[in-house]
Structures are given as structure tokens and as C-alpha cells.
Amino acid sequence: MPTPPDTGKVLLVGAGPGAADLMTVRALRAVQGAQALLYDALVPDEILALAPAGCLRIQTGKRAGKASMKQETINRLMLRLALRGRTVVRLKGGDPSVFGRSGEERAFLEAHGVAVEVIPGVTAASAAAAQFGFPLTHRGEARRVAFATARVQDGAVVEEGWAALADAQTTVALYMARDAAAAVAGRLIGAGRAPDTPAVAVENAGRADARLIGASLADLPAALAAAAPEGPVVLVIGEAVAQARAAGAGQPLRASA
Ligand code: SAH
Fold first, then answer.
1. Fewer CB atoms inside 10 Å of the end CB: C or N, the chain?
2. DSSP character at residue 118
3. What is the pLDDT of residue 257?
4. Domain-ending residue, one of 119, 140, 159
5. Which residues face 201 on adjacent strands?
6. pLDDT tens digits, 203-229
């Protein structure tokens, strides 16, 4: 099917972790130029307010537990709007290439002749590290970073894949794992990761109301349960995390080994 000459395009845009000033300038310009904006639940009003007054706004995702628009519906909607010649901005929390389905959406749209551009964003783990003063890599201690998620099937965390994250020099950033911290810690320790590995949970990373919950890998599930966070949480596990400090505080929570 040939693409009509007045087809619009779709920008898959990273909104960053939730503070407008952590967007890239390119992302900001994209939002300011949007004719249709499809946005995830994690994108705050402060950022939605940057879109022009006449822009069509559609929320596609709801917070955990509530219904979200099906991926197929989102794809069709973006396609329909682009074929009508609109500049469509698909605004996602963090970076679109990290658990943001950018691969699927790009493939679908390109298969239908619609041009796609991806604009990167600050991913939650980067925002957490910056805000709480720890690096994701550290010379001699953390040679690798893994962005991972605890894949859950039928309510249980899947077994395979944990060995790759057990290496002592890998910093593990776990997304969508807030409610699976006990299973995650159990699997990692089971795969050989030391139980006293520094571990933090960061809620609302990058925002003014961010919270650091610090512990060891073995103690993280209990610390997280006691803190009962309601916002999005990224877990970061590894030796480099020992450098974490409360926002604004000078001293690390625990001196690095
Ligand atoms: N593309 C996003 C990730 C989307 S998956 C990114 O690059 O950050 C959704 C998960 O991201 C949440 O379950 C949580 O684990 C994490 N997350 C997103 N925003 C966050 C924030 N501000 N603070 C902590 N975790 C966040």
C-alpha cells in the first residue's frame, strides 16, 4: 500500500523520569510541536502542559492494577492519526528504548509506511543514581550495568535469566519489580549474588518527592515492605550502590568498600 504524500509522522519521545527539566531540549520541542499527544500514566501534568492548546491529548496507560489501553489499540490510534497527516507524539516515561515498547511500535508503524523518530530520555535508573549520589558503573567495582525486569508469568517470577545478573561486578537496575522484590532478591541470592550486596529502592526518581530506601540485597524486601511506596520504584543492586546518600546529604549511607 503506497503511503499518501501528506502522511504525518510519529515521534516516540522519552519524557524522562517525571520532572520537566529532565527532558531533553529535543523532547521539549517535540511536545511543543505535537498535534496529537498519546501519553503514559507516568507522565506528569507539568509536562503535558507543555503541549499546544489545540493538541489532541489521549492517555493510554493507567497506574498498576487499573486497565490500560491495549497495545494494539494504541498502535492503530497512532497509525490513524499519522495517516491523517498529524504529527503524533507518543510520550513515554524515562527512555522509550528501555521497557518502552519502542521496538514494537516502530515495527508496526514502519510496516504501514509511517516514519518514526525516537527521541531518547533519562531512564529511571540514571535519574535515581544522579539524585542519590551513586554511579551505575565504578572503576574496579562495577564493570557492567544490566537493565532488567522481573518477568512474571501467572503471578510468579520466572526462573531463567538470573545467573546473568549474579556477577559481583554487575550493577542490576530492576524495573517493574516493586511488588516482586522478595522473589527478585531470592532468585539473585540463589544464583550466587552475595546477600550483603548493597541495594536500594528509589521511588519517584528524578522528582522532588523521591525517596531512597537503602538496605542490603537480603534486607531489601523487608525494607521495601516497611516503606510501602505507592509511586514507581526502581531497584538498583550492586557494589557501586554503597555510595548512595540521602538527597542533599554529604556522606554516603555506607562507605564504599
Ligand atoms: N521507559 C521507562 C521504564 C518504563 S517501565 C524508563 O526508561 O525509565 C516502568 C517502570 O519504570 C516502573 O515500574 C519503575 O520500575 C520504573 N520507573 C519509571 N519511572 C520511574 C521513576 N520516576 N522512579 C522510579 N522508577 C521509575
1. N
2. E
3. 37
4. 119
5. 213, 235
6. 999 999 999 999 999 999 999 999 999
